[in-house]
Amino acid sequence: MSELAGPARGYWSNVLRRLMRDRVALACILVLAVILLAAIFAPLVAPGDPFRASMLRRLRPIGTPGNLLGTDELGRDMLTRLIYGGRLSLFTGIVPVINAFAIGTFLGVFAGYSGGRANMAIMRTIDVFYAFPSVLLAIAISGALGAGIFNSIVSLTVVFVPPIARVAESVTTQVRSLDFVDAARASGAGALTIIRVHILGNVLGPVFVYATGLVSVSMILASGLSFLGLGTKPPEAEWGLMLNTLRTAIYAQPLVAALPGAMIFAVSICFNLFSDGLRQAMDVKL
Amino acid sequence: MLQYLLRRFVYAIPIALGVSVVCFALVHISPGDPLASVLPPDASLEMQQIMRQVYGFDRPLPVQFGFWLWRALAGDLGVSIATGRPVAGEVWHAFGNTFMLAALAAAFGFSAGALLGLVAGYWRGGWIDRLASTLSIAGISVPHYWLGMVLAIVFSVQLNWLPATGAGPGGSADWTWDWAHVRFLVLPALTMSVIPLGIVARSVRALVGDILSQEFVDALRAKGLPESGIFLHILKNAAPTSLAVMGLQLGYLLGGSILIETVFAWPGTGFLLGNAILQRDLPLLQGTILVLAMFFVVLNLLVDVAQTWLDPRIKRA
Amino acid sequence: MEFRKLVIAAAAGTLLLAGQAAAQGTLRIGMTASDIPLTTGQTDQGGEGMRFLGYTAYDALINWDLSSAEKASDLVPGLASEWKVDAADKTKWVFKLRPGVKFHDGSAFDAAAVVWNLEKLLNQQAPQFDPRQSAQGRSRIPAVASYRAIDPSTVEITTKSPDATFPYQIAWIMMSSPAQWEKVGKNWDAFAKTPAGTGPWKIANFVPRERVELVPNPEYWDKKRVPKLERLVLVPLPEASARTAALRSGQVDWIEAPAPDAIDSLKKAGMQIVTNAYPHNWTWHLSRVDGSPWNDVRVRKAANLAVDREGIKELLGGMAIPAQGFFPPGHQWAGKPAFKLRHDVAEAKKLMTEAGFGPNKPLETKILIAPSGSGQMQPLPMNEFVQQNLADAWIKITFEVVDWNTLINIWRAGAKHESSRGATGMNYTYFIQDPFTGLIRHLQSSLQPPAGTNWGYYSDPEMDGLFDKVRNTFDAAEQTKVLQKIHEKYVDEALFLMVTHDVNPRAMSPKVKGFVQAQNWFQDFSPVFMAK
Q1: In a domain, A73, yes or no
Q2: pTM
């Protein structure tokens, strides 16, 4: 941790400047922004209706007039479905990380700041969940709860809370023992103030960088759950699910069937490269 | 050292207990009738009641947990609802298959990843570094179940070089290490290896970079140590952490094989898990998750111990 | 002269032998089941389980005739060479057992074995009671009250009330070897590994979840059905694209239910696609509880007229038979319904207008569907297609999607149960092979949940009367007439939304020869052989 002392005012503008100089990260941000905006404004952007099926236009190849990226097994426009699919895929990929970021940071900071028994209780419980390989835990919980977007978000949140809480706890514990925190405490500052001013300022940065790195894992896992039939339910458009339902068409239209997987791949790469860039720009080591 | 080992071992016990509670609880938070899979669709309510008694699902949960844990400690994981076979035997057999797959994937992924990472870290910024970084980013970003499908289409269906599903011409029971059988391993193992390849390459690259930026390397260079000697130094210093990363990756491979095994119909623990979920076979689900999680706990312990042993400088709180 | 004859005979003998040798080989089949069905006799995994590990390794007292692809199959003598109902007391059935039949372990099949097998399913106190087989078999023979061996070759079974459909029930019950069960330590798990029945195939080798191998039983009592193959290997491949890949890369020679979209590419790769009608239908089971819109026959008819069944067939790549009734066209029980299931949106709108609906006042209701399930074909696209069709006739459907096991539980619980979530219909496919599974269980008022699976609480004294008549008509021709009358009522009153019948597509390598696809859920593998 090179930035342990409270970040200076110019810190974030520095980070931004450094990020802007990173061409790869910039390109990724651009790609992600396009996909995200397209997903958000899908009804305006998409050329068609994502649910409108046509038995006569099933499984058209890429480049068909009117269906730029072909059609799926129900004759629905692939481009439209991919744009709409971004909504749920990004949602089920990002929301668990946001949840876990909030819950994990809270638990970690609380455990780290309190120390003693509270720390023991929280961190040992977290250790138990940490003792499961992540895919196994996600599938176990989703498998137990059954299919559905909500269940898949719950299970992925549970998967990502432990690692985030661990990072938050270790940073908090380090910061807590530093001189300036002692000084603040001696000057009569309340626990909440200390946490808000001194601890969160130091903890959020590294935890945030760490969390951005989890988004790609979360996307792949969420789509994987849908692929296994444990996530989003049809007829929703979601990349993992589209990959699953198009699997039977893979001999008829291999390229069309491979598109949703390529989307997951592209977004996942962008998130990873962006996270790398952010890490360098913020000079955080984990 | 011995004291540390002992403490580390004792510490693993409550974790293991916690893991078993989670495994048990998981299955009982699940909605739906656990016996749905054995009953034919038009079974009467009376029939369902009889079955519930036969399988012991009418007893209170803590009692069920007690029995389950006690028997699990004796190596008895109960009986699969869907097949009536002992879960322990099923899991053990499947675990062997998954281990075979994971070990091969690990062997390939780790060696290729370590090599890539080493080269990239050593010649930082060069084209090799860029290639290695791209490969490793791709490795950790690719939805591997999708990659598996693509590979199966190309190599099995189009080219007909390698089989697409299963574990050998006669199933996994008569497995032998000859090409007739090993060819069944190639595609799933290759698909599975991309994630550890990416992660190991990234970790090793970062480690090597760190070591090279440390002052002692400059000092060694100044002393006139040949590059081969410096390389050896790097290896020695990067080994403990790299091994720890690999150990955990092996655990993730074993625990995360479900998607690959579904795509390739490989009869391992992931396939078993998929079946258990599909058929809502609760004892099987419980048993499989428990065995995999326990293995991961033990693996973590071993990794810690190995790391301490290799690198005594690591201070253990 | 004598010498020449001998030479010819020898030559003919060699030819015959050569012919036999050519007509052998190993057939590997990819099943849709996710696991090997139970091998102990009464199988699980639905119709597929009985197809592959029921009627192959075992026999029932009465079997299905699976020898013809042209006509709907009916019952034929199995382990019982004849059976009849007592003329005076119509609850008493006497079965004459086939003499000289041996189980695969060499022990004799006799009346005691029949009683033993019924006890295995029905008597919880019996040492051989097997909860797993019981769960599968018990509900197949609801009519049985008691049973006894009259002499070593005669069994008497008494039913609770006169029931002419009883032979169809007993055709479900597989006979396992009591002697083998004793020999392996009175343990069904051990029996599962080394099973013994009387069937044309013996279960030789069994790797749980991966494969099971069957070899011919040369001593089979019906010499016509001694298998020609050397070996039959069954592999569970639940995933449709994995099945297709396995067939195309030569790991199996035959797959059940290839994905419709893969069929073209399979044909191009030289595979044979075998299809045939069989007693299966894909319906919406309609609720008839108070307040259901389907209580109005005009609405039911309108919905049936709005469905574009040819479009569904197109969606399924031609792998379907558009419904003309509840039973497939040409079925011996189809009769001559007056109401024709055609695609006529104008007529549907007219009926809807009469019923008080219109473009500005559509009928809105909810239907339960599952994204997958045994026999459900391609439930999601098909249901979405039907949804679009019905919208043309001002019927606005919303779907409540639940998983397959949940749907089965809801189906058991009934339309009034809270788990049905107020839905007025469910998409359910039916196995309709005999009078009970085909007609009675859906609509008899005494079978309303929880007693049975009359999910929609249909109740019509006239229908109940017809069902009673089926059960009390012991003359086959007369019984068929009553069944036709029931089916006509099913169609004329549009009691279901009748959409389509599956054709049970199978894809197999060109080397597979001799298979005759019977119009049945079950199939005979004995005549199959592999070309060199």
Answers
A1: yes
A2: 0.79
